[in-house]
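Chapter review. Work through the record for CASP-like protein before attempting the end-of-chapter questions.
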Amino acid sequence: MKDLHLNLRFLEIFLRLSILPLTIASAFTVVQTKDSTDQYGKVEFTNISSFKFLFSMNCISAPYALISATLLMSLRENRTTWSFFLLDQLIAYLMVTSSSAAAELLYLAHEGDREVSWSEVCSYFGKFCSKGETSLVLHFLALLCFICLSLISALRVFRKFEPPSVSAKEEGRQGSDLH
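Structure tokens for CASP-like protein:
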């Protein structure tokens, strides 16, 4: 059991530290997401709210990952278990929403939407779409790390509790309810 605990702790620290380069690279790439044409003008990540949200989540999750990895290495597990559980869940959900919004935008940029007369734009703003896709892939990889961290932190929290006991009287009542 102690080996599992140490391996889990090592994996958790590794995942938290892995998030750093992924989110920093994603943020750096999304900031460079811009393109222009003579015919259609200029587009930058600051013009697109889903890319601004993606950038913001990268800027929030990178420091959180670093701080939580540092705390995990220096503090006892009991003091941080619930905090990590709640914050890991929150960050993971926010990363899901930011990546979903950016993915939808990139899908529309590639495919357009004929029903509302939106043309695809990636043939005109190829550099913009390429940088956006790269940033999104890096963000998705960081999201996968946070999903794993959410599962680990949930395991850490819920293994502290014993399953509810069923008395003999309750067992008899449950058995009679089934018939």
